Amino acid sequence: MLIYPQDIKEKLGIDQLFELVRIKCKSDYGVEFLEKARPSARVADIDKWLEQTAEMLRVLSSGDNLPSRDFQDLRVFIKKMRVKGTFLQAEDFATLKSLLTLLYEWTQYLKKNQTEYPELCSLTYGFIADTTLIRSIEEIVDDKGQVRDTASPELASIRAMLIQKEKAVRVAINKVLRKAIQDQFTDEDSSVTIRDGRLVIPVKAEYKRRIQGFVHDESATGQTVYLEPTEALQLNNEVRELQYQERREIARILIRLTDLVRESAEDLEKGSVFIGLLDFIHAKASFAREIEAVKPQVSKNPIIKWYQAYHPLLWLSHRESGKPTIPLSLELSRQDNRVLVISGPNAGGKSVALKTVGLLQYMFQCGFLIPVGEASTFGVFRSIFLDIGDTQSLENDLSTYSSHLTSMKYFHEMADRNSLFLIDEFGTGTEPQFGGAIAESLLEQLTSRKAFGVVTTHYQNLKKFAENTAEVVNGAMKYDVSALEPLFELEVGKPGSSFAFEIAKKIGLPEKIIENAKGLVGTSQVDYEHLLNSLEKERGSYEKLTKKLKKEEKSIAQIKTDYESLKEMLEDDRKRIIKEAKGKARQIVEEANQRIERTIREIKEHKAEKERTKKLRSNLEAYKSKQKKEEEQAAKRKKQEDLKPGDAITIEGQDTTGEIMHIKGKQAQVRFGNIISFIDLKRLSKTSNRQLKAQEKKSKKIGGINMVDKMAQFNSEIDIRGMRAEEALLKVDEYIDQALLLGSDQVRIIHGKGHGILRDVVRTHLKGHSAVSAMADEHIEMGGSGITLVTLG
């Protein structure tokens, strides 16, 4: 695969990414595989690498009790025993045993789960990994790296004899030491020690000739010598000879064991490759999990169809600092647009977007999982070209622009329909009119060669070229025009503005200079920039309206759901009430009949006594009166339940006729002429529409108050600045009541900005007011957050 320039890894940040993966490698062999990683143009290779890493990612997420991941390099031991006659030390065999165990356990695990992890399992083919060597080493060497006594009968015999002789030496030398302490030839706390591998006792220098033996050493001060007594000399010689025999026997055992392992050298070579490769894949999968990467769709054709793509290094940096990272969505294909021209203000994210494209494509063709949406598709390019940053060469005496042109010459010569070119700040470094013209000509040639590419620019001619060329598309880095701040989000389909004049104005450049600059640029150029700015504002407004519409649609859907639930509940209640009413009616009729029959019976029994009859009739009349009252109350409740918007009504105890506008809970919003008020439903009675029309023809004087004069004198705003909270809320309540009485639908409450305390108190209070439907800040030019617009209704 063709890559240009040679330092593309440094320019795109791939070396930094590889370093993060290198840290996760456990072995030198794994690091070597990483360092050899290069992008491939073979689809089969890329797909295999991606699937290996994806399978390892699933392994790590499986929750299985996995084999050890302490990968080490087996080649160290293979190299040591390569020469015949050489042998591994006991501690080498202890490490080798753990590695062979790791090799065996991983091969068994992958073979057991072959259906789920076929690509990883295929790495185990071609070599034997069993427990034969492991058992052979286990029989000879223990886990601490010591040769076992049972490694051979000779070693067992030598060590048994050695123990006996060492015991005899200690007995003899301890006897001499006790006598020396008794004769005060040495200190009372002295003990047997070792010098040159032989047991000795410390003796004061002036008494060294009082004890027969051989002096091996003396203290730093010369006041103490370390003496081997004659009684232990021969025994120590025998111990030393046994130690030599032990070493020779251990060497013989280890040579034999090394020869046994050497017979499996070919399998060990392949096993070492497996462990190294597994370590590398494991490191890639661990990094993929860290950056939340996935395996995208793979296409053999050159194509870019990415959704929610992230620059991994930027994402890690932002995550650490708690900042959000804006994803990139992009599509380049042969059928539609193959070249993207990104424009926009400086520091708006153009170069980051371009680097993201280069880095992710490089990662993909190296077999790394990518931080994108799973529906994304990556195609394969046979060459990737990059021109970014200042590549001025002092050795070749090339200027910045000359070095850019050198790159462009290479792109022009080598680019084809399978190439991806990435050019940052296309055409800069020389006079704009010439640099822009050459850049446009080069872009036209690259487009004619059917190459794919992403370029960033400030030049208007390149934006217009993209607009007028079918295979080239404009792209803009979004910008908050009102705040003059970049949003770092790519929008494909329209060019971006540099916002040069707006930024200059924001930082305080004098207006005279800005206006003069506009004149120097020319009317058409300024108009073009103005048009782009207007489009940006329109887009911002459209997005806000779209979000508002979606929110309202969601609210309407919720209201509809609530309405359906309420309707169902009311229908159930209606059926229940009718049933209960019928039962109550039957009960009343039965009770009334019983009372009448009982009254008649008692009158007959008492032979129509005057007082008794009078009392019974009185009781019956009282019962009838009670029932009549209950019926009237029930009828009144029924009448209230039947009230609905549009009905003509009167207030209990008054002759005024009005119309119901809305019903909210137990209250109704009622209009009396130009007056709108909220009244409890229980105070309302339904009347005829004819009476309502007659009422509307009467004078607008109500209760002795001239409503026309009141409405003319009413002020649509109230100023509560400087008031205490309690006083302000009282004034606001009185003002809202007056506004409702006069039928006003919107008022302004002036509370000032300050720390926003009075504003928050007023708004919190009005949230619970049944007549308040909405609150908002006044327009910025008319007071902004210092004034609250209150909508009534």
How are the SSEs ordered, and which strands pair?
Layout: E1 2-4, H1 8-12, H2 14-22, H3 28-35, H4 43-61, H5 75-80, H6 90-112, H7 118-122, H8 132-140, H9 153-182, E2 193-195, E3 198-204, E4 213-218, E5 224-229, H10 230-262, H11 265-290, E6 297-298, E7 304-309, H12 312-321, E8 328-332, E9 339-343, H13 350-365, E10 377-378, E11 383-387, H14 400-414, E12 419-423, H15 432-448, E13 452-456, H16 460-468, E14 472-480, E15 485-492, H17 500-506, H18 511-521, H19 523-605, H20 610-642, E16 648-651, E17 657-664, E18 667-672, E19 675-680, E20 684-686, H21 689-697, E21 701-702, E22 705-706, H22 707-713, E23 717-719, H23 725-741, E24 746-750, H24 757-767, E25 772-777, E26 787-792
Parallel strand pairs: 1-11, 6-10, 9-13, 9-14, 11-12, 12-13, 23-24
Antiparallel strand pairs: 2-3, 3-5, 4-5, 7-8, 7-10, 14-15, 16-17, 16-20, 17-18, 18-19, 21-22, 24-26, 25-26
Helix pairs in contact: 3-11, 4-11, 6-8, 8-10, 9-10, 15-16, 19-20, 23-24
How does this structure look, described?
- Helices cover 53% and strands 16% of the residues.
- With 793 residues, it is of the alpha/beta class.
- It folds into 6 domains: 11-128 and 264-290, MutS, DNA mismatch repair protein, Chain A, domain 3 (Orthogonal Bundle); 151-257, MutS, DNA mismatch repair protein, Chain A, domain 3, CATH 1.10.1420; 297-498, Rossmann fold (3-Layer(aba) Sandwich); 539-642; 648-709; 714-792, Ribosomal Protein S8, Chain: A, domain 1, CATH 3.30.1370.
- Helix 15 runs parallel beside helix 16 (460-468).
- The model is unreliable at 391-398 and 699-705 (pLDDT under 50).
- Residues 628-645 have a biased composition (Basic and acidic residues).
- Its EC number is 3.1.-.-, 3.6.4.-.
- ATP binds at residues 344-351.
- Pfam families: MutS_V (PF00488), Smr (PF01713).
